[in-house]
Amino acid sequence: MNKWLRRLWKTVVVGLAAILVLLGSGAIYEQVSVRKDLKSYTPSGKLYKVDGKNMHLYSGGQGDVTVVFASGWGTANPYVDFSPLYEKLMPHVKFAVYDRFGYGYSDTTDKKRDIDTITNEIHEVLQLSGQKPPYLFVGHSLGSLETLRFAQKYPGEVKGIVMLDSGSPEYYYNDTDPVSDGFMKKLLIKTGVIRLLFQSDSVVASSRSIRNDLKFVPEELKGIDLTASLLKLENANIADELQQFKVNAKVVLDNKKPFPFPLTILTSDYLGVTNDVWNKYEAEFTSWSLQGKQLVVKDTEHYIHQYRPDLVADEILALAKK
């Protein structure tokens, strides 16, 4: 019996040692790969000092109206994500794509991701970069909260909002709950497992499926998107946003007063899959404006602008002309 226990113990020790070696090798592989990626991952726009940290903003276009893009939660690189839209808009309007801290080319920050801090940072980077209000905001998904809060805090600086399958504050506060980003996910990232998986074309394609396989994004930008995804998969700012969204929604909701400017709600039909709760909140989202309207966009998923950039651009320009 003692001999059997000794053999079992030896097997366990050898197994644990092998696991530790693999984890350690994976961690080194991840660290080396990150350093390599950072050398080529250079800002597409300009960096501005906001509270002592670098915040990135990419701008262009021409005209009297500036369209400001607010990305959804977890969208690693907004510059890439919104490219199908600003390419269509730039002959007609100016545009600005900002990266919240933890996203794109921006640094991470030690400040909590409460909605007023985020909104103040957006306001400051727009000022520092020389953008001129009034703005037309375009918010995707969870980006709805910061666009609404910006309009509440700086009412004279917003002339309209277009929401891209964005949840209302009522939806985020009443019908969703924060979830943990997950210890296992962090372990898989830190030990290089996720990076190894993304060497597979099928895994990359699967990760892009909700975004229409980035059909309207140039190949060069697809490469940037992949690098950004690997660099930004897990950081404290993105994780904290996920934990804070219910509290943030409550702040926006507590200050609700219908806006005088136009608000267009573009809602995905999720390729024909009906969600009665989501659809109810989307229809009621128009109550946030005295000039609210909703349009359900057929044959699209959550990233509407990756499926119908033409239609979305037309809706944005319709508000810009008002």
Automatic annotation (TrEMBL):
Residues 67-170 form the AB hydrolase-1 domain. It holds the Pfam family Abhydrolase_1. This is AB hydrolase-1 domain-containing protein. The gene is ybdG.
